[in-house]
Amino acid sequence: MGIFMDKVLVVDNDPDFLESLKEASLNLHQFDVIGALDGEVALKILSAETISVLVTDVNADKVGGLELLAYISQNYRGVPCVVMSSYGRPWFYKPLEQREILYHVEKPVSMVSLISAILVGLSLRDENGISRGISLSSFLPLLELERKTCRLEVKSHAKKGFLYFDEGALIDAHYKDYDPQLAAAEMITWENVSFTLGELPRRRYQKRVNVPLMEMAGATWEKDFIVRNDEDEKAFEAESVSGENTGIAEKLALKIFNSQIEKFKSIRGYSSIGILDQNFGLLAGDCADKKINLAHLLKDFKPVLCLCSETTEKHGFSKCRLFTFHTPSNTIQILYSVREHLPPFYLVGITEARGNWVFVKFELESLENQLAIAMQKPIIIKNN
Fold first, then answer.
1. What is the reported pTM?
2. In what order do the strands lie in the sheet with 322-326?
3. Residues 6+ apart with CB under 8 A from 285
4. What is the reported pLDDT for 236?
5. CB atoms < 10 A from the CB of 145, how many?
6. What is the CATH number of domain 6-132?
């Protein structure tokens, strides 16, 4: 009898991408990939197979990614979902709960990041913490991304309401006799929701909600979320001219790190998180266990990290950049980030032995990307 493995349904119109992901999954022995070139095929597979995680391009052919997610919310609430888009990822001001089952991955997709997201989904499903389904907060940004014109019917237990969108903008809402703006704010708080996409009725084209969609969702786009004033802009330009990229950029990076600490603290079994420079200087950190000294820990690990990198490179696997160590009491993860034109840095995450270390790994990689963005010249949002 063969070993049962979870089945992951991946919807993308690029057969080469699907084949690459299948090959990567074979090497992991963690899950099987079932590929679908369009959403119509995906619906047939969902009805015929037991799927553990859905991965879909937001622009899936025939049946789109939004429609697939809506179908999941109605029929397979326990299936975690990963949505891929070329625009970017939404960044939430208030970290989503650990049980959130909709993840956003930016295209072109890093195979490591995608597999990490899939493993997080499998871990959440195994913990039975996903009965609440996809939240509206995580789904709404996709409507703006797709510039969707539609009516979104939202159900939660015995409650039902409607949100109306024109070219991706939230223009109206209806729930009981609530004011439209209050109705939208009320529905955002609902749990255990399912939703259905339909055509926008002609009578609903009048704009009656004035709060921007992303503000309603409590989010912005990741590449837009650094706000700087004119003085910061001039300082950054002066540093860029001089060839230095560490002053303002590092300060911004530390702000981002500090804003993410609470997200790590919410992870089951959390112990410590830190960011260190290439000389093991602690730039920012938090330790639930006061006996842990991240700087000393990383210095002691240095010979091991060097040996691992030399060994993998010697055998043709290139240098290690993410190290995971399991002990009877803890799991220690060290991510070494080296990117062109940016100063190297380390990220360290520690959980208890039974903690959700897979989720920490996913968040470390996400934090690395955010820090790398901040260390470059970010897009400026002008303050009104």
1. 0.67
2. 282-287, 270-277, 345-352, 330-337, 322-326
3. 272, 273, 274, 275, 276, 294, 348
4. 38
5. 21
6. 3.40.50.2300
